[in-house]
Write a structure and sequence with these properties.
Blueprint: E1 6-9, E2 14-18, E3 24-27, E4 32-39, E5 42-47, E6 50-54, H1 81-88, H2 100-103, E7 106-112, E8 115-120, H3 130-141, E9 149-154, H4 167-172
Parallel strand pairs: 8-9
Antiparallel strand pairs: 1-4, 2-3, 2-6, 4-5, 5-6, 7-8
């Protein structure tokens, strides 16, 4: 979803992350917020000259429709890899509207006593949105039932290539000839 640039007022405190560092911050209630982009369920906004990323699950604080990400707790106190993959499918590259799994950016998921480590790469090692994507992964995977911590390890070997994308993602991106 993409929206026209517009200004809103935060109607309650809203969690956000600074761009490009990914540092967590809060947009205070009553603050004027310029929405620059809505893509993949997340919003890129400007507040007092600072660019920030607001997760779609927190969009109601800006008076926007919040994205709902729900998981069924299996009741066994375990973290399930399929639910982590479900969370990762809700995170989209900010420039390519394809989720991180289908884009081939996720190299591995390790679960150890409910602590999760995600090994991932970026489309380019110098990707300016890398820290934001890492924070998106931490934020969304932490919503999976029974996850106690999330770490993200950036890996650049092997380097990402479009061949790592699923066929569906290649079709969506217009890369199949």
């Amino acid at each position: 979803m993409s929206i026209e640039r517009r200004m809103v007022v935060a109607n309650e405190n809203c969690p956000a992350r600074m761009v490009p560092s990914g540092t967590p911050t809060t947009i205070s209630a009553g603050t004027f917020v310029t929405i620059n982009q809505a893509l993949g369920g997340n919003y890129t906004v400007t507040v007092n000259g600072n660019m920030m990323r607001v997760d779609g699950t927190d969009a109601a604080a800006l008076g926007l429709e919040a994205e709902s990400i729900t998981f069924t707790d299996p009741g066994d106190d375990q973290v399930h890899e399929d639910q982590i993959e479900q969370a990762l499918r809700t995170i989209f590259d900010p420039e390519i509207p394809i989720n991180l799994l289908d884009l081939g950016l996720i190299y591995g998921i390790d679960i150890n006593n409910n602590d999760v480590t995600i090994r991932m790469t970026l489309t380019a090692p110098t990707c300016g949105m890398g820290p934001v994507l890492v924070s998106d992964v931490k934020y969304r995977v932490a919503k999976v039932p029974n996850v106690t911590s999330v770490e993200v390890e950036l890996v650049f070997d092997p380097p990402w290539s479009r061949d790592m994308m699923t066929e569906e993602a290649q079709l969506e991106a217009g890369l199949f000839f």
